[in-house]
Amino acid sequence: MNSLPATLINLLNYSYSMAKALLEQQGEFYPIGVCIDQEGKTMQRLIGDNDNYPLASVLLDHIQTDFTAKLSSGHIVAYAIVYQAKVTSKQYTDPVNVLIAKFKSLEGEAEGVYYLPYTITDKIVQFLEPWVE
């Protein structure tokens, strides 16, 4: 994560701290959208439009479409969309719970996906070794 712009690192840290709090309080969460506007203000998007129980995939699409349009129009300078999944990788050959952050920033033209594996024991989230793609 150190090769990413500082603004994006701060945004990812903010997003993951929100996700961690929700996991510790509720054990799960809907996808989270977080962005930074031109003035450096961080904004959140936590739930879907008028649907009380949206499918996570629909919510991800809505947030992605919204943030892509706002980034293209210059209303925001960076965003991260965080959601939960279970994946395997070279380091984790058995399925592991991860927080996935799709991110994009105009600063340094950074774009990618950041995987942050975690475990929950007694309602305490512990993060494991992350990776970026």
Keywords summarizing the entry:
about 30% helix; seven-stranded antiparallel β-sheet; about 130 residues; alpha+beta; globular; single chain
What is the beta-strand fraction? Answer: 35-45%
Structural class: alpha+beta
What is the N-to-C order of secondary-structure elements (H for helix, E for strand)?
Answer: HEEHEEEEE
Unreliable stretches, pLDDT < 50, 5 or more residues? none
Average pLDDT figure: 88
**How much helix, percentage-wise, in residues?**
25-40%
Oligomer: single chain
What is the overall silhouette? Answer: globular
Most strands sheet: 7 strands, antiparallel
Span between N and C termini?
Answer: 11 Å
Count of alpha and pi helical runs: 2
How many β-strand runs?
Answer: 7
CA radius of gyration: 15 Å
Give a verbal description of the structure.
This protein is about 30% helix and about 35% strand. The mean pLDDT is about 90. It is globular and about 40 Å long. It has 2 helices and 7 strands; from the N terminus they run αββαβββββ. Strand 1 (about 30-35) and strand 2 (about 40-45) form a beta hairpin.
